[in-house]
Structures are given as structure tokens and as C-alpha cells.
């Protein structure tokens, strides 16, 4: 009996020690990051900073690798109420997560109080000289430079024909394949388009080599910065190194070619980046050009390809919306003059219902679940303090799934956009403010052209319609939408 009592006492002591250690660990981030704030710590938003070093990342990854990614933010609401703003420890930094339109709008539009605050993994992989890392002044300069070649009216008019030719060719090719990974093929299509816009390149060999590296790169952008074999960030760093090598070679060749440059030759984005100079005559370095290219080539095909896939899936899961979208495209074709060949920008702008389909897909998928900012100074929002140097995560997903803004938010319903204009900060598929995605118009044009031709003459038959959805780095079926593309009888194709 005495021996048994001794074991009970020892076990009780052990449990107590473990409890104390656990309690101390749970308080470690509080000691490191909150106590030094002094009185300001009492005006921080509700929340918790989680465990040392990893913070709240385990619960974040657990949620986004499950079938319910929104359980991560739901846990904050359950524990701390509907504050709409919470403290956490994310991607290696003490952070504030904001989830309401008003706070999102304020943070994305206030460049004096907030600057980019992307995680180490994103900065290292996309590039410190790209839009994600440069100052507000440099960002404005590069944005002015790249806006017209990407989103200008003249550029979009030229790209319309090129995009349409490639979409039609791709669909014809896919219809003759026994089956394919729909998402993989869409990503190849959109990558080909962005390669042409930026590099005037249609080299299939170069495109496949770069696109393969970008696939690996993407898995590391939202990962923890663990540079060790087997981790996504480690593999992504190797992919970036390979991308830099290829792009450096292209930049070097283009610089040599430009020594004999003819002013009659059409400029692409690479030419524009090589030519630009500031007021003192300084031109962009190779590093700056390569980082901008890496960012644009990545962002310029990933979001478009994923949105095309999901819009196609959603429409075919909802025949009533599909028929309405298809009828609109048929009306556009019927109105054409007999001699017209191909879509025009004016016809694109007549696609009112298809635009609603695209917006609803962008909302429901929320390709980028969050963007990152950093407080330049102490900022007061909604009665809470955001300390200088803390990161801010503008949580788009919570905004897009807010039932007070979008009733039945997890339902695909393009008609919700009828006579509905979302208030500021409540629809953020491309961000907002001065750092609004510079390729948003091009992306929507690509998606619309693809859907136009798909609706008029093709049908998607998925092999695994119940395939589980992955949410990191972006929402997609685990089988990349393995499917058969079937050509349908139509007088419009």
C-alpha cells in the first residue's frame, strides 16, 4: 500500500510539473511580446499568441488541411467573441488578424500607417525587389510602368485576340484527349499567355521548364520558413534559384539585343523594365527586373487558372446558372456582323451575367485568403491598439463568407450580384488600395474569354466529382480536377 501511495504522489507531482511547464510555455509569447508594451498591452485586441516559436500555426495548418478551413477563425470567434479583430502569432510574428470590411478597408488604404508585412518565406521566394518588398514610392513607380502594358485598353485589345486563339486551340486539343487534369492544363494555358505578354515567348520547352518550377515555388510561399530537406520552403528555394538562373539568362540576352534595338519593334514587358529610369537616370538592376518578373509570372497565371476551373465546375453543378450564362454568350454571337472574326472588348463588356459568375467564383474561392501588412507606428482601430512593428493579416476569407453581407455565403449564386454593389472592403479578390493587384483586368478578361468558348461548345465530365478539396496553397481538388472534355454540338463553335 505504501509503495502504491508513493507512485500516486509521484504521478501527481509529475502531472503538476507538466502543467506548470505547459502553462509557462503558453505564456512565453506573452512575456516576449506583450509585457514589453507596458500599458498598451491592455488595449490589444482579444486573442492569444499560442506556443513559443510556432504560435497559432499548428491550429491554422490543421484547419486548412481539413475539410473545414474556416474552423481556424471560428475558434477565435467562439473563444473571444465577434470582435472582428484578434491577436495571434502567425508565420513567426506577433500579429493582428482583421476580419471586417471596415477594418480591412482602413488597413489596405492607409499607406501612412501600414506597409507590406509579408512573411519571410514569401519575401525570399517572390523577391525583396518585387512589389511585395519595395517601398511605397518604388511600388508606385513600378506600378505606373507596368499598368499600361498589362491592363491598358490598347494592350487588352491586342491580348484579346491572342488569348482567344490559344483558348480555342487548347479546347480543341483537350477534347481529343482521353482524360486530363483540367487544372494542370488551365495553368499551362494561362502561363503561356503571361509568358507572351512579358517575354514575347511562345517556346513550349521554356514554358514547361518555368511552369514546373513555379508549381514548387507556390507550395513554399505560404509555408513556414524551415530551410531543411523535406519541407516545402526548402524545395521552393531551390525552385527560385532555378527560376532566377533562367530569367537571368533571358535578361542578359535581351540587354545585348537592345544594343541594336529598332524603335519599330513592338515592346513587351521585359523591354519596358529594361528601359525605365528614374529622375536621376538610374535604371533597374537585373535583380529588380528578375524579382518583378517572378512575381508577375507567378500571380499572372495561378489565380486565372484556378478561377477558370472553379467557375466551370460551379456552373456545371448548377444547370440553371449555366443555361443563363450560355444564353448570354449566344446572344452576343447572334448580334455580330457577318464579317466579324473573334471577340472584341466591347463584347466582353456586354457579358454582364458572366461577370457576375466570375465575381461569385472569386468570392467563393477566395484565391488569396489573406494579405500581410505591418504597422509603421502604433495605430488605434475599433478601440484596440495595433503596436508598431506587429504584422496585420487582412483575412479576406472571413469577409467573403460573412452571412450578413452574403446570405448563405457558401452557396454558389451569381444572381446574388443582381442590383448589389458591395460596400468598401467587403469584396477583395484582388486586394484594395494602392497595392490592388495590377493585373486584375487582364485576369478577368482571360477568365471571360475561356468561359465564353467553353460555354458555347464544351462540357466537363469529372472522373472524381467527390474528390476532396485541398486549401493550401490554394483551393483545388486533390486530383487537380481529373476529367474528360467533351465537345458539344453547337452552331457557334
TrEMBL record:
It is a single-pass membrane protein. One of its GO terms (biological process) is sterol metabolic process. GO terms for cellular component: endoplasmic reticulum; membrane. Its cofactor is heme. It is found in: Membrane. It comes from the Eukaryota. Its main location: membrane. The chain crosses the membrane at residues 6-25. Pathway: Plant hormone biosynthesis; gibberellin biosynthesis; Hormone biosynthesis. One of its GO terms (molecular function) is ent-kaurenoic acid monooxygenase activity. Heme binds at residue 437. Keywords: Heme, Iron, Membrane, Metal-binding, Monooxygenase, Oxidoreductase, Transmembrane, Transmembrane helix. Catalyzes three successive oxidations of ent-kaurenoic acid giving gibberellin 12 (GA12), a key step in gibberellins (GAs) biosynthesis. GAs, which are involved many processes, including stem elongation, play a central role in plant development. Belongs to the cytochrome P450 family. PANTHER family: CYTOCHROME P450 26, ENT-KAURENOIC ACID OXIDASE 2. This is p450 domain-containing protein. It comes from Cephalotus follicularis.
